[in-house]
Amino acid sequence: MSLGDAPMATAANAPANSEGILIGDKVYSEVFLTIDNSLIPEENLSPTPSMQDGLDLYTETDLRILGCELIQSAGILLRLPQVAMATGQVLFHRFFYSKSFVKHSFEIVSMACMNLASKIEEAPRRIRDVINVFHHLRQLRGKRSPIPLILDQNYINTKNQVIKAERRVLKELGFCVHVKHPHKIIVMYLQVLECEKNQTLVQTAWNYMNDSLRTNVFVRFQAETIACACIYLAARVLQISLPSRPQWYLLFGATEEEIKDICVTTLKLYTRKKPNYELLEKEVDKRKVALQEAKLKAKGLNPDGTPALSTLGGFSPGSKPCKLSLPLPVVQSNSFLSILLFALALLLSIVTLIVPKHTHTHTKKQKQIDTKVEDGPGCSFLYN
């Protein structure tokens, strides 16, 4: 149960027992944990869950870099070993290939990965210390004077969020949280190449390896390949020649394409601008609002939660206009007298609609007018 090809690896390497394991009176499925299935296939690297929620690749990369820098800085203040900080950064990358930055706070997840990594590498720290260190880093980032963390309700809420995030990381990674680091592998390979006494080469390769933790190479390549790439890059920078006939990295199972891919990905870090925490936070908040509005729109609601008018079936509180039921006279002539008589008849029709019929009292003069209208030349009127 992990990222990548976990089901395929389970089917290939686990014992063939489709019924599972019988414990007591219940049958449980097998759990297959191995470092081999912790890598993510290339086809699953894009689009990421964050990209599906509207976050662009550049912003997501900045969030990954910033989260790893927080873990590295917090680990130094907590005096954790480098392997613990490296483990926390790899777990951070793995988690956000299955979950979105829009739906999960990267700072809370960074704390959870830091706390979990300290336990994995047998250097546990109190969760209060982890929160306190991240609080201190937030103040330094905002260039504010350091203020001690107050143990109020906000602290309790943050602590609960970190605990839940740690459980969520374990669940998403299928409890496959072991990380194979290239630190010792670099030294071992340099011993094979008889270059272990060159401390500058060893330290430079280690530095490149620590910097590559901010990228996604640890979820794409094996630790042995990353070690070869760090040695290759350090030797090129220091202009140290290594065996080339055949190429030395072929001895360790690495290919030239993989090494160049890792080197290019690592070198791109040094050409990027430093991530801006405030701008990234605003971008994530904007995507959260857009995602929430899309959900409300799908449910037929306005952004404030009220029902949309389009979902009310065309209902309108306004009254509908009434239709004129009395037929109008038909004009049969274009003479001036015909037009005048037509206007007079139209006026009478309107009066008939307004005044009830039982209130009409026709005077003698009105009867004469009606007679003249009926006998008028070129006109005829139709009455109900």
Q: Helices and strands: which structural class?
A: mainly alpha
Helix content: 40-55%
The outline comes out as elongated
Query: Any idea of the CATH topology of the largest domain?
Result: Cyclin A, domain 1
Total of helices: 14
Number of domains: 4
Instruction: Give the tally of β-strands.
Output: 2
Protein traits:
single chain, 384 residues, mainly alpha, Cyclin A, domain 1, 4 domains, two-stranded antiparallel ribbon, 14 helices, 2 strands, 2% strand, elongated, disordered N terminus
Can you walk through the features of this model?
Strands 1-2 form a two-stranded antiparallel sheet. The chain has 14 helices and two strands. 26% of the residues are buried. Helices cover 52% and strands 2% of the residues. The N terminus and C terminus are likely disordered. The N and C termini lie far apart (85 Å). With 384 residues, the protein is an all-alpha fold. It folds into four domains: 167 residues, Orthogonal Bundle (Cyclin A, domain 1), CATH 1.10.472; 89 residues, Cyclin-like (Cyclin A, domain 1), CATH 1.10.472; 26 residues, no CATH class; 61 residues, no CATH class. Keywords: Cyclin, Membrane, Nucleus, Repeat, Transcription, Transcription regulation, Transmembrane, Transmembrane helix. It comes from Cyprinus carpio. This is Cyclin L1a. One of its GO terms (molecular function) is cyclin-dependent protein serine/threonine kinase regulator activity.
